[in-house]
Amino acid sequence: MALDGAYLHAVRQELLPLIDSRIEKIHQPAREELILALRSRTGGAKILISCAADRARVHLTQVTVENPKTPPMFCMLLRKRLGNGKLLDIRQDGLERVLYFDFSCVNELGDVVQLTLACEIMGRYSNLILIDEKGIVIDSMKRVDATMSSKRLVLPGVTYKMPPRDDRLNFLTASDEEICTVVASKNAELSKALLQTFEGVSPVLVREWAYYAGQGAACRAEALTDDQRDRLCYTIHRSKEMLEQGTEVYTMVSTREGQLKDFSFLPLHQYGTLMVTKTMPSACELLDEFFASRDHAARLKQRANDLFHLLLHATERIQRRIVSQSEELDACEEKDALRHKADLISANLYRLHKGDTTAELEDFYDPECPTVTIELDARLTPPQNAQKYYQAYKKACTAEKILTEQIAKGREELAYLDSVLDVLSRAETENDLEQLRTELAEQGYLRLLRRKGKPPKSLPPMEFTASDGTRILVGRNNRQNDQLTLKTANKNDIWLHTQNIPGSHVILETGGKEPSQQVLEEAAQLAAYHSKARDSAQVPVDYCPVRFVKKPAGAKPGMVIFSNQHTLYVTPKGDLL
Description:
Blueprint: H1 5-15, E1 22-30, E2 33-40, E3 43-50, E4 57-60, H2 73-82, E5 86-91, E6 98-106, E7 112-120, E8 127-131, E9 137-140, H3 176-184, H4 190-197, H5 203-213, H6 226-245, E10 250-254, E11 260-264, E12 276-280, H7 283-331, H8 335-347, E13 358-362, E14 371-375, H9 382-425, H10 430-442, E15 462-465, E16 471-474, H11 478-488, E17 494-498, E18 506-508, H12 517-529, E19 539-545, E20 549-550, E21 561-562, E22 566-570
Antiparallel strand pairs: 1-2, 2-3, 3-4, 5-6, 6-7, 7-8, 8-9, 10-11, 10-12, 13-14, 15-16, 16-18, 17-18, 17-19, 19-22, 20-21
């Protein structure tokens, strides 16, 4: 899925019309992602630049993302240096995976200066570097010091150097003779040999060339036949013409389950019928769609990391506490033996003396009255020894009661944290995360920092329409679950929830009528989908009228008890249409 230099060449062609545009806004929605909003007389456009190792790229975007309330330092620097700058040129050296954006800007003194934004798309080495007109690095999205690399430093004040470059052929300028000579000198499978021969090519592109040259059969670079050599040169020339004449066929392939796998600027035949192929109208639109869902999930995951760690640590702490308390509770099972010993000592006080360390007594609790040995404290009198055992018995009884209550509370707390983790795993917006933070702060799990401005307004419950037009409401988090079930819903509406599985509360509005079996199943499918069992099959979902749902005093958010329920087994489904 690497964005190679050849595809970057096509992206550059689509970006060239933006020359003479001016920067209107700069946002950094994530630590390794930047969006430049440009404006010209013909309209506006947004360029997305990502330096994330698994999704590094640059392209026009139509996706709307949420920006942090406080912009990162690198974003503020770019706003200061590049704000209102005019785009002069977009350069690419051969098919290197680097685009240089040249801007004309005005500095603090009012002088016009030229600054360059180097966008390096190189996997885990991807970076975005701001360079002045003398070639000095002003700053970068990722700073690289001597402890990280001994070959190339990327730090403020250091002279900018291009990334290390191998001596490889550019297939846009190489002749057939050069291509055949270099490829024939490689002792490797053809696609690997092509990858070693050309710059700016990705594995998917060279595999497609090798697939065409060998007509689907594997072949070696050093043993190409004349026909295979001709076919190889032809397919490389055809790729060159596509890029030069603007006749690219932007293609992406996905599994039959919808998981995106690869993309290129030419049709992909190497997968045969194993993959589903889709074409897009432009290079930027393909990248925008390909990475949109993945980026959204990645951004949320990055922002939710603190909550995940908090919940996981709290869960582990409570689990360790329950294990320890359970061991103590097991020890309390010997309390009856303590009372037993105390009774035997009390019944035989006349036979015991202070200073005895043991007592050999008949156990009258046993019909056969066997002799038992009881340890005594030599420093205590017989009555005091009996009292000591009685006190140990009472202590064990008290501990048993308290430990049983604490273990129950601990398990209840684990169930609550599990429900919060489930909501967190299904969070779709920054607003969802803020609502979770507020809920956890109210429960004492974290302390909210004071933030400027109004707190985010909570979103309404998710709303769906059943096949007969009935409205179905789904809570987004535990606080909303309580609001939806205990205050919003009518007592005759139907409440649904996955059986013993964390999930959202679902309300099926009935209007006082009996819902059909089909509508009940549709609501149950939604309840299963918005739960921890989303990826399972045949999920049990309990349902009952809302009037049978109660919230115990002092219960955690989202925790309720219910009765008179029935159970449906359904397959999760998130869309009723």
